[in-house]
Amino acid sequence: MKAFKLSVLSSVLFISGLYSSATYAIECANEGFQINNQEQASLSECKFEHLEDRNFEWDQVSRQPITVTNSNLEINKSSFDYRYLSSSIIGMIAANNSTLTIKESDFYAYTPPKGYILGLIDSSAIVLNSKFRALPEVSLFYLENGKLEVKNSTLLQSSYVSGMDFGGLFSVLTDKPSTIHVYDSNSDVNRILKLSSSQNAQAHKTILNIHNSTLISQALMQDDWHSKNLDVHFVLNNSTLKGYTNIDTTNSRGEPIPRVMLDMSLNNSTWIVPYYRYTDNLVDHLMMDKGTVQLLSENGQLQVFRIYGDLSGTGTFILNTDLANQQSDKIVVLGKDSGDFGLTIKDSGNEPNAANGKVTLVETQTGQAQFSLLNRDYVDAGAYRYRLVKEGTNWLLSNREGERSQPVPVTEEEKPSTPTDTVVEPVTPPIVDNTPATPITPATPITPATPTTPTGPATAPTQADSGQVVLSEKSNALVGLRQAQLLLTQGDLSGLHQRLGELKTGEKGNVWVRNVNSRNKLTALSTAHNSQASGFDQDIHILQVGADKAVSDNVRVGAFVSNGRSDVDFKGEYGSGKVKGLSAGIYGTYLGNNGFYWDNIAKYTRLNSKSSSTGERKYHGYSLSSEIGRIHHLGSGWTITPQVQFAWTGLSSKSDEERLNAYTGRVGVRVAKGIDFTGWQLQPYAEVNLAKTYTNTNYVHVNQYAFEVAETGSRVESVLGVNANMGQHRLGLEGAVTSGSKLDQPYKIQLVYRYSW
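Structure for Outer membrane autotransporter barrel domain-containing protein, as requested:
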């Protein structure tokens, strides 16, 4: 072995070029070199490369081609490419009792299993703006009582091949303490930590601090079979970490074994936890400060995330559910729990086979931590809506309406443990809380499952069995938009008949324009024996243009077009929708000499319906309406007109929506007074109508469930208006209010202008 000692003179010669990179690379790659007892040694802009010949004998070569002992070494803008196939080579650079600074350098290594690029034994290193790459078998760093800082660097490892003994980003011997800091860096490796200890040695805690970095891996760590009592603490600050824990708690015979102790601190950071088919992912203590834990599923396989110690802080858990089969990712806390946490649910979207389903998301021992769904307080699965409720010390999703309010009283009772008059109820939860102290032994995860038995004592769920299940957003929107389509299509029929009533004055021809603005308020209506839609508020705006002419003294015919739109608000959490309609129609009226009249309207409407859950849908609408009445002249300009209307409206079907047929009957009376006022002919009027709509039994379908589109029932309409006529111009203004058991119309205002000749 050639001992390469960098004196002041040799450093000057190296920098001046007398030691060329090529010559040095060949010499050192074949024989290696050592740096001993140097206070200020440096390698700058050097290239070290060796591709080993398989037939080359390495008996004379050191197990570390480059060793640094009792020295301070700076490596700057250099590259190292070492590919050792010999089992005698275990590392590229080994530092003993030394300090290294590595800047803007590139390392690539292929060494046998358990090899490494940079080893720190009783040493420290700072790595800046550099790249480390290795094959799966090779660890990038090895620490034995080492301190390492990696800043603004890239750390890569080739993909793991099945059956290969792969290394880690950091390989740590835990006989002595080691600390690692990673700043502003990225890694993509097979595992983060490879842990080992000498047999019967006392392990020290390994602390990995990650700052503003992203570390991606398959596994967080793996320990050698003889390693015992290993203790690891991940501390993440504004960072992302990915990897399953890969911690065995029992041997092949199911017997408890010593295991790695893992603590995790997430400070404004995210831990992505992949599914691992061999063992549950686990952690001992989980401390979160605006942290996120995201559980990943694999081919629909869900996982249990176990916290053997305490859960504390504030943060978010992202869970996967399959509510159709009442399964979910589950968080199990075996120690104490405190803090506030949000839950984001990603459901499979499959349709539940039955209503009244529930699935447990979180199991705790004390019930002190508070959980809530983020963004919105429900999860839609197929036809039904699930809400988060608290049952005992556990949190679960249930689609029973009666349980929605349950979390509030249970939570409120747990907090006021100080009042002496209510001490009986709050004291009982702590008695249950003390029992989880035994889950220190890993074999007791079976006991935490028992807290789910409080399902029975909770009275709210039993009440919910006879209550309502909650519709999903899509189910509710399908029902509500169907009703909104009908109301928009029917909204202009009565006004059109009023328009025809104005024609009974003898003009030969007319053109007219009419604007209608109204609001409908539909109450929550039943869709099945155990569910109801939310109801909605609907703002309607209609603009109509038409023309007609007299074909005889008693008959006139006309045509019109209209554009209608409406905004539908499904009352809060169900969102909103829109319904638009373009219509064209014809009409005709007969007026007898005795005041009897008969009006008829036929209309076609092209409807467009849209919401976030249903998407955009188009329909055909058809309307036929007929009104008969008789105008009675009472003298002094007074008239009274009893009238009867019957209308049919049909809406086309879709694959999940049946055809809708609605039949509306209306009876009413109109009283008017003619007044001459400074050249104007005024006619104020009042009208009262009783209307009722009946629909055929029709349904919308969501998977195997059918929900009825209920009819709007009966209602009373009160109308006040005035017509003003001067020469060939006529203006009309009308306001109406409708009140019904199911449908209210707080206002309806229409303005009409007509030009006659």
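Residues 268 and 290 are 5 Å apart (CA to CA).
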